[in-house]
Amino acid sequence: MADEYDFDLFTIGAGSGGVRASRVAAAHGARVAVAEEYRVGGTCVIRGCVPKKMLVYGAHFAEDLEDAKSFGWTIGAKSFDWAALRDHVQKDVTRLEGLYGQTLGNHKVTIFEERAQLTGPHEITLAGGKVVTAKYILIATGARPHVPDFPGSEHVITSNEAFHLEELPRRILIAGGGYIANEFAGIFNEFGCKVTIANRSDTILRGYDASVRDRLLQISMVKGISFLFHAEFESVEKQADGTLMVKLTGQEPCEYDAVMVATGRVPNTEGLGLEAAGVALGKKGEIVVDAFSRTNVEHIYAVGDVTDRVQLTPVAIREGQAFAESVFGPGEPYAVDHSCVPSAVFSHPPIAAVGMTEGEARNTLGNIKVYQADFRPMKNVVAGRNERSLYKMIVDAANDRIVGIHMIGPDSPEIMQAAAIAVKAGLTKADFDATVAIHPTMAEELVLFK
After folding, report:
1. Which class is 7-144+266-328 in CATH?
2. Alpha-carbon distance 52 to 349, whole Å?
3. Architecture of domain 349-447 in CATH?
4. Which regions in the chain score pLDDT beneath 70?
């Protein structure tokens, strides 16, 4: 590598994408440094999908303990200790943070625990004043929750703060209709909070199949979650007793104990010196990159949420891996395929999806076949729950190829991981039909569609 620089690669941001890129580059012999101003691990590990999934697990016990009676278990007095769960989750987050730092250290990656910005061609200046140079620079600073501007917005929380609440709110308003809003709605509802979701449109989980998102809406309402549509903030006023008086468009003022905003995420590009370095930004402030994650400045790259391509942790990891192997590895450069990316919503019950929705397939392919299974899982039958699962398979009628699978029901994300391989590989409905079912399971519905 070029000895004229202090490092071969300098990564700004030690989240999932930045850590993977740095580790792989170092494994190929590059001299690598990473700057992280907060905590190694990034959004996913510290304040995102990992601690959120732990809360989801905790929330499931509310219904599991109730259902246990139907399976012969005698349950004594039940109580929930939010502080105990919160602190256990944060303890494990700290453990994972240490492992991420250890991984970088094992690969001899230099870690600067401070903010960094671009101050010249191939030049980075750290918050403490130290100036270093690098042949390549990778921006992997992720994204942050978007908080709308309205009177009283300083009184709201985001998903970042939700993990650290001193106590659970008796009544909480969650603004947004995406996966974060619906996931936290399910979590807080199971913990005994009165949850209201306020959405500026009349559609939750835009981008997911209409049948699946409608089913979640129905189930959520049965569970006691309230929904307000075409409702945007007019004001939030903190009252003398600490409660919040909220005025939404088209609604009477209403009192809540906490207001959480989950209205999207914005790329973290401010204060990095990108403009001075000539790096092109998009309309949302995202870093514009090509298929190989390179910006318009030849030696500067970007991966993950800061590029606003597909805001999912596994995608950021893939982008980081592809960047490092393409720039520092012995093989030919390659780009990440962002098509047919599976995703999940860890709601109650969870949703999982891959490929085209029914609407997208009709608009794109025209002639399609739709197979559907609407059933009550065996556990729900025994427990006396009327909650039904829904699986959909979308097939291109021209060649029998499966172009989409959509599911809502227990363990849907676990089942989808394997099903997504089949869709990505271009398998057909006949391939599924030829596969013997595992009985009794929910997953067998995928090979029993008629």
Report:
1. alpha beta
2. 15
3. 2-Layer Sandwich (3.30)
4. 1-2
